[in-house]
Amino acid sequence: AGTLAIDPATGTITPSGSTGGTYTVIYTVAAAGGCAIFTTNTTVTITQAPSATISYSGGPFCTTSMPVAVNFTGTSGGMYSYTGAGTLTIDPATGTITPSSSTGGTYTVTYTVTPAGCTTFTTNATVTITTAPAATISYTGSPFCTTSGPVTVTQGGTTGGTYSYTGAGTLTINTNNGTITPSTSTGGTYTVSYAVAAAGGCSAVTAIASVIITSAPTAIAGTAVSTCANSGAVNITTGASATNQSSVLWTSSGTGTFANANSLTTATYTPSAADITAGSVTLTLTANGNGSCVA
Predict the structure, then answer these.
(1) Measured between alpha carbons, how far is 173 from 214 in angstroms, rounded to an integer?
(2) In sequence order, which residues have a C-beta less than 8 Å from that of residue 230 and are 6 or more positions away?
(3) pLDDT tens track for 77-111
(4) With the C-alpha atoms ordered 58, 62, 64, 66, is the resulting torsion angle positive or negative?
């Protein structure tokens, strides 16, 4: 069915000028000297030299990807193999790769075919597998008072992401390493996000952690109080105030007595005889903090 390049005088065949196929070569001796014509024949098979191309569309591939079939043209019947530092799951007969059971890396896929009578033929394609990103973050010790020092994040998984936050106030955070600074933040509850961008065929991934910043308490004892030695209990709360407190407490440098010592409006102080003799005492208003904030 094809073409066999043959010298009709010598019978020499030239495979490179022939097409693949099976041929019957006939040798004929003409009739002469009373003898009849003579013929004999033999079969010659020409195998087409192998050729092929392979490729994988859509790469690089994430380890979350579905199996990927090879794009193949050329001589069939060969086998697929690979080289690379990791593990590439590949069907040696079909060339289909399975990223989900492969490890990240760059691989060389080789298709090898050796038809009968021909030398081995190989062709290659490059395949890149990207490990799917994953991450966790946490801040040990939350809630944090606005008097606290900087707090570092505990981050696991894929590096190279960026940090951000959401919340009603202001959270001072380093967008590169996730360190928060409570002393320049405002009180509130924040959601810190660590985002790894989409790359290498893999989708973006985000990890979150909750951070609570508690505002430190403040206290103002108010205006100085003057009273007569015989006046007895005197209200000491004029001008007194406190913020971000769970409770307040009045104390004295003297030995007098308090009533309602936990009040910002009705606390009174009765000087002792020693206080009257001393002429003055110092009254201190202490605001006790919320959460991790101390007085």
Answers:
(1) 16
(2) none
(3) 999 999 999 999 999 999 999 999 999 999 999 99
(4) positive
Taking Cα atoms as reference points, which of 269, 135, 124 lies closest to residue 194?
135
Cis, bond preceding 60 (omega within 30 deg of 0): yes
- Which residue, chain included where needed, has tokens 């009739």? 31
Is residue 189 within 8 A of residue 167, CB to CB? The reply is yes
Model confidence pLDDT, tens digit, residues 71-80:
999 999 999 9
Q: CB–CB of 109/124 below 8 Å? A: yes
Within 13 Å, how many C-alpha atoms sit on residue 87's CB side?
7
Q: Kindly provide the residue ranges of all beta strands, DSSP E only, lying in 215-274, ordered along the sequence.
A: 218-220, 234-235, 241-243, 245-252, 257-259, 268-270
Segment 28-66, tens digit of pLDDT:
999 998 899 999 999 998 888 899 999 999 999 999 999
Pairing state between β 154-157 and 135-138: antiparallel
Please give the structure tokens belonging to residue 246: 């769970």
List 52's β-bridge partners, or say none: 74
CA–CA separation, 203 and 57 (whole Å): 18
Report yes or no on whether pTM surpasses 0.90. no
Determine contact, residues 128/200, Cβ cutoff 8 Å: yes
